[in-house]
Amino acid sequence: MYTIGNISQMFQLPVSTLRYYDQEGLFPELKRVSGIRQFSHNEIEALRVIECLKKSGLEIKEIKQFMEWTKKGPETFEVRRDLFEKQRQNMIEEMEKMEKVLAMINFKCWYYEEAIKTRDEQKVNEKIPQDLPEKIKKDYLLSH
């Protein structure tokens, strides 16, 4: 068993967030001893899923719905799977957007390094896109 302070440190979450999750019913089997929350491995696993879903863009009310589905057992397997498949697709799309952002940043880092070396931005611009180093050319093309 773990205290709320242990869980706060483990997940780097404020105690207030964990209390809020509890108030919202996200830990339906959470035990209390003399009013002190006692987190088990079940709550730790639930918190891993909650944090995953939060980071994937779901709101607390949607996560709460997911937790309700888990209580219903096998009859909600499909709807739970569908939720994760939807979130997976959302994350793939977000990662593709971030890859484009990173490609632009990589290109611009190279660009300004070259501009600093040559002290001539026009010479750098003349290399675009045909005379770029291969990796930078890939980044340039991805970002444009």
Keywords, please?
144 residues, mainly alpha, two-stranded antiparallel sheet, 7 helices
Commentary on this structure:
It is a single chain. By secondary structure, the protein is mostly helical. The chain is 72% helix and 4% strand. The chain has 7 helices and 2 strands. A two-stranded antiparallel ribbon has the order 1-2.
Briefly say what this structure is:
The chain has 144 residues and is mainly alpha-helical. It contains seven helices and two strands, in the order ααββααααα. The protein is 72% helix and 4% strand.
The average pLDDT value, as a whole number, equals: 96
Number of helices: 7
Q: Tell the overall outline.
A: elongated
Beta percentage is under 5%
Share in helix: over 70%
The sequence of SSEs as H and E is HHEEHHHHH
The largest pleated sheet is described as:
2 strands, antiparallel
Radius of gyration using CA atoms only: 24 Å
How many strand segments? 2
Class by alpha and beta content: mainly alpha
**Low-pLDDT windows of residues:** none
End-to-end CA span: 52 Å
How is the secondary structure organized here?
Elements: H1 4-11, H2 15-23, E1 31-33, E2 36-38, H3 41-55, H4 60-72, H5 77-118, H6 121-126, H7 134-143
Antiparallel strand pairs: 1-2
Helix pairs in contact: 5-7
